[in-house]
TrEMBL record:
Pfam family, one: DUF6490
Source organism per UniProt: Theobroma cacao
Name of the gene encoding the protein in the UniProt record: LOC18601442
Transmembrane segments: 18-41, 47-70, 82-103, 109-132
Protein name: Uncharacterized protein LOC18601442
Keywords: Membrane, Transmembrane, Transmembrane helix
Length: 182
């Protein structure tokens, strides 16, 4: 018995669901609850509060990043600036929270190093979202105003005429190179 077209299409392109994000979130949730239980059992209530905050902030951070990626890159709306600010503040608070939690049980020199890493990471995210992104958008606006960002090439295409076997002129086409050709 020969398979029909519907059956061959399903076997050629099987859809395999990927559950990696679900597994990662389950693993994160399991570790969070086990850490909360350990901290609660030892009477470390500030650690419980910190872990709950990090858990909720992580999901809110992922939500904000998804919203930011859904916006067009050239969008200059207050919503985009607000999302960038929220992402920067949340990541900075999480970095400094971890630095504070680790500084309580490590050597003061190592604690200073951990706080320096938190400051550098926060400064890098600030630079990435506010300084570098602004420079890139200004350069794009300047290129649009000057009009020198697009080059038009005229390509003369030669072809063969099948009846006379001679080279004949065909259409002249304009090609605008994309970013992959520049």
């Amino acid at each position: 018995m020969l398979p029909t077209n519907d059956q061959t299409q399903n076997t050629n392109n099987p859809e395999i669901p990927i559950f990696l994000p679900v597994v990662a979130h389950f693993y994160l949730t399991f570790n969070i609850f086990s850490t909360i239980y350990q901290a609660y059992a030892h009477g470390d209530f500030p650690m419980v509060a910190f872990i709950v905050f990090v858990y909720l902030a992580y999901f809110f951070l992922m939500y904000c990043m998804t919203l930011l990626q859904a916006l067009p890159p050239q969008d200059r709306s207050p919503r985009k600036d607000f999302l960038k600010s929220v992402i920067w503040v949340l990541t900075s608070v999480i970095f400094f929270g971890f630095a504070y939690q680790f500084s309580t049980f490590i050597h003061p020199v190592a604690a200073a190093f951990v706080f320096a890493l938190a400051i550098l990471a926060s400064a890098f995210i600030f630079f990435l979202y506010f300084v570098y992104d602004g420079q890139q958008q200004q350069q794009q606006q300047q290129q649009k105003q000057s009009g020198s960002s697009t080059y038009r090439l005229r390509i003369h295409v030669l072809g063969f005429s099948p009846s006379t076997s001679k080279v004949c002129d065909s259409k002249i086409r304009q090609v605008v190179p994309g970013p992959e050709n520049v």
